Amino acid sequence: MNSVIAKNETILSYIIAIALILLMVAASVILDDPEVILPEIAAMAIGIWVYQEPGWIRQPSRIFVAPSITAAIGFAINQVDLPYLGKVSITLVLMIFPLAYYLWSRMPLNGLL
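Below the sequence we write its predicted structure tokens.
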């Protein structure tokens, strides 16, 4: 009985991960923009739902939110009509903020104060 439940959970995990990937592909086709497909999100979907990586499962919202925010920043900056060097510079500066927040919010402060 337990093996049947485990098999059903595995099948459901694959279905959820593949559905998320197909949703990105569908959005890319509908919006006619290949930049909507984010390989990082696809890799995280497989890591969290299919392989159930223990380090990722502990805080799945953090695993999803940080790359999503930085991807949105990169996508938005790429839509702006600027030279390539300007886009890269602005993107790097803007990505420092969410990454610094996640770094500082995970650090134990009791030994630092």
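The mean pLDDT is 78.
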